[in-house]
Amino acid sequence: MLISFLDKLKLKYKGKRVLIVGLGLQGGGLAATRFFVKLGANVTVTDLKSKEQLLPTISELKDLDIDFVLGEHRLEDFLLADLIIKGPSVRWDLTELKVAKKAKIPIDMEAAFFTSICPAPIIGVTGTRGKSTTANLIYKVLKDNNVDVHLGGNLPKASPLGMIEKINAGDWVVLELSSWQLSGFHRKKISPHIAVFTNLYPDHLNYYQTMDDYYEDKKAIFQYQKNTDYTIFNKRYLDLLGDKHGKLITYEGSNVDFLITNLSGEHNRENIAACLATAKLIGTDKNKAKVSINQFLPLTGRLQTIRKVNNITFVNDTTATTPVATIKAIQAYKNNRIILILGGNSKQLPFEELIPVLGEVDKIILLKGTLTDLIYPILKKEYQNKISKVYDDMELVIQESYRIAKESKQPTTILLSPGATSFAMFTNEFERGSIFNKIVGGLQ
């Protein structure tokens, strides 16, 4: 079945002109490019970033016959295409895309395209926070229960099209889906068979004009389901659901009635509850699921304990790019003495709720960025004796944090949970976290 399935795609796309808009550095554009080249399409890749910026990805495509248009977009490439695959970070209001749409050129996105051709049922997971952890928990529980399952989506190097050849009709697929990816589902009017919704907080308001716009994209995960599909929804957010969804299953953190070993915080109890609800629906053994969950370790950059030096614990929560995420991190370690590494660029999100919570930490070490500039006068007024100067060097930040922790001689958690994006100092939050890990690993 798989061979005929791929053969049908080859017949459809062989010789067709496919334009990949947005190559990126996290693997999405890479996998889509490889996929369409393998189908025999004539592929052009265009990205506003330069060749030098995209070199890590381009080097992985060097043996393929591809045309690259970098540092610019050419309108003729859009108008000559038989299919355009838009990257998640490329805006729909890009001039060339609007012209192509008017010319009735098909425009798709990788995750939505994958969902429309995937031979196996899909479990889609979205939410402002917890979607990566929940998706990975579901994947582990199913895999440990001998279910043939695949994991992909909004995860580094986990592009759905990169795994399509391995998927059979009797398998399951778990996809983590961002709001940007789900915007493509709206345009195809499709939703996954099982939709898991974790929560909703202000985020990406540097991209969306309003929270309503943000949630509108999120809703695509369940809005086009049939009555044979399922929506697994956090009970705290039921007022957001509306009436367009599959069969409803709700969950809450209090459903988790066993000791959690490795995942800190109430938010992780909700992630586990979502996982258990999904696993139950699919028919896995609950006791086996509990064992799998307690073997699960925090994902990279998500309240991840990196190292313990005597009585000092280093925690990497670099994916906390919103004030709400930092609040959750502080609450997860509320019984600890905390040195918080905070700051970076703003997503234009409300930060007022964060300010009083910072009273629970012992020291605040600041990273430079537009959010830091915004909150610094407030911090200076409220917490003058707690805040450091603003740093633009992660090594100096860690050295200062480590010095303060050692001098206190008390058990201390040094928590990187910036509450902001990384772009003032780093390529992305994963680079920020990787540099943190490397420096911490080298401490004497």
Automatic annotation (TrEMBL):
Residues 301-408 form the Mur ligase C-terminal domain. GO terms for molecular function: ATP binding; UDP-N-acetylmuramoylalanine-D-glutamate ligase activity. It catalyses: UDP-N-acetyl-alpha-D-muramoyl-L-alanine + D-glutamate + ATP = UDP-N-acetyl-alpha-D-muramoyl-L-alanyl-D-glutamate + ADP + phosphate + H(+). It is an enzyme of class 6 (ligase). One of its GO terms (biological process) is regulation of cell shape. Residues 125-235 form the Mur ligase central domain. Its main location: cytoplasm. It comes from the Bacteria. Gene3D superfamilies: Mur ligase, C-terminal domain, Mur-like, catalytic domain, NAD(P)-binding Rossmann-like Domain. InterPro entries: Mur-like_cat_sf (IPR036565), Mur_ligase_C (IPR004101), Mur_ligase_C_dom_sf (IPR036615), Mur_ligase_cen (IPR013221), MurD (IPR005762). ATP binds at residues 127-133. Its EC number is 6.3.2.9. Pfam families: Mur_ligase_C (PF02875), Mur_ligase_M (PF08245), MurD-like_N (PF21799). The keyword Transferase does not apply. GO terms for cellular component: cytoplasm. Keywords: ATP-binding, Cell cycle, Cell division, Cell shape, Cell wall biogenesis/degradation, Cytoplasm, Ligase, Nucleotide-binding, Peptidoglycan synthesis. PANTHER family: UDP-N-ACETYLMURAMOYLALANINE--D-GLUTAMATE LIGASE (PTHR43692). Belongs to the MurCDEF family. Cell wall formation. Catalyzes the addition of glutamate to the nucleotide precursor UDP-N-acetylmuramoyl-L-alanine (UMA). This is UDP-N-acetylmuramoylalanine--D-glutamate ligase. It comes from Candidatus Roizmanbacteria bacterium CG2_30_33_16.
